[in-house]
Amino acid sequence: MLFNSIDFLLFFPFVTILYFLLPHRVRWVWLLGASYYFYMCWNAKYAVLIAASTVITYASGLLIRKAPRHKKLWVALSFLSNLAILFFFKYFTFFLDNLAALGITVRRPEFDIILPVGISFYTFQALSYTMDVYRGEVEAERNLFKYALFVSFFPQLVAGPIERSKNLLHQVNERHYFEPDRVRDGLLLMLWGMAEKIVIADRVSYLVTYVYDNYAALPGAATVLATVLFAVQIYCDFSGYSDIAIGAAQVMGFSLMENFRRPYLATSVQDFWRRWHVSLSTWFRDYLYIPLGGNRKGIVRKYFNLMVTFLTSGLWHGADWSFVVWGGLNGAYQVIGGILAPVREKLCGALHIDKKRLFWRCIRVVFTFCLIDFAWLFFRADSFGMALSMIVHTVQNFNFSGITGDALYTLGLVQPDFTVMLWSIGALVLSDLLRERFGSLRERLTAMPLPIRWVVYLAGILLVLTFGIYGPGYSETQFIYFAF
User: Fold this and answer.
1) What's the CA gap between 67 and 60, in Å, rounded?
2) 180-194 vs 450-467: helix axis angle to the nearest 10?
3) Considering the entire predicted model, what is its pTM?
4) How confident is the model over 25-37, as pLDDT tens digits?
5) Could you please report the per-residue DSSP string of 189-214?
6) Considering only CA atoms, which of 480, 43, 14 is closest in space to residue 248?
7) Which positions are catalytic?
8) CA–CA separation, 187 vs 194, rounded Å?
9) pLDDT of residue 112
10) Which residue pairs from 212-216 have beta carbons closer than 8 angstroms and sit at least 24 positions apart in sequence?
11) Cβ atoms of residues 292 and 272 within 8 Å
12) Is 219 helix (H, G, I), strand (E, B) or coil?
């Protein structure tokens, strides 16, 4: 069930209304059933996997509490069993393909291995609980089914944010009241997320898909344009999902962590990763980078730990070397930036450059975006070989002849849609700039007089209905991160 589907527009109000009508003591039961139904709408049989991950991590928590002398063993078994499930369904075919490339032939299973939606997200969320109990940051949950709700909570189940047990688990037991202001704020965030998805991301996807499918017949500038627009697409697609998830949870009284903080206004790659997919980047920081030693064991070890973390993050995103390269590039950017930091500081001092001035901040933002966008090419390409081929083709055939004038409207978007795309991206950039400068726009909007607020509410709904990609013949597009 997709957020941008009619099914969800019926499912969510029904679940929410009944949730508030039910007695507090049984609300969590209703949410657990709704969450499993939500997940089973994709493939009912894969609910067994999320149930297995839930039972394993739940048991590990109890064993850590009851037999603390062996808690390292319970943590190890929890991680090994969960990662084994993840490996089989997500990486087994990739592993066999690489063995074949080395000349090692292994008989493949006769059945198709289909990647269960959201498996990387709920696996990491469940494993974080095991680690939090091990570290003594949370108490082991005794009620299996309440813990199952923590793992399967439907708003953020299939694409995050990847919640921590110390933030979400206790909310399962809290009494949530119907608060009009909170419901309004949640619905506004859901509306904004829907606009990001169906007005911008789904529209941009037509041009990006067309160019990436036909890059060899197009000038190199078309690839550059499509790659820049893919940066917009994946931001709006994933941030849109996160906003809908956070907003839906807020309507019901739950608080989820912020997942995006205007990432393309970052002034460095390190800053970008403080702003992009925050729940995952902090997961890798807390449960991989710091346990490896973080920056506590010298500069060489720090950079090694950083590269391991980002290469692992790349592999988490997909079973292909292109994702590993994407992660490696993001890690290498930061290693090189750290090594060159003293040189930059001396150069800025010699040239009397004030890095806080707006002009230099803009230069840093643009430079960071170019680095990130180059890495996105490997993320979007179907394979590492395709990414290399696209780079070579772009360099050898770079010209603007095929993307100027009316030719621009042959790249998957006709002129009216192209115009809507540009205006929408402009609105997105303006929104991020205003939020960066003034903070939450929702708070400022809700402080306005009631007539003005309702004009804005209705205008937003009308704009989404008018310019969103939906209707007869339209098939709801899956969110990009569902594949991870």
Assistant:
1) 10
2) 30
3) 0.91
4) 999 999 999 999 9
5) HHHHHHIIIIIIIHHHHHHHHHHHHS
6) 14
7) 317
8) 10
9) 66
10) 212/380, 212/381, 212/382, 212/390, 215/390, 215/393, 215/394, 216/389, 216/393
11) no
12) coil
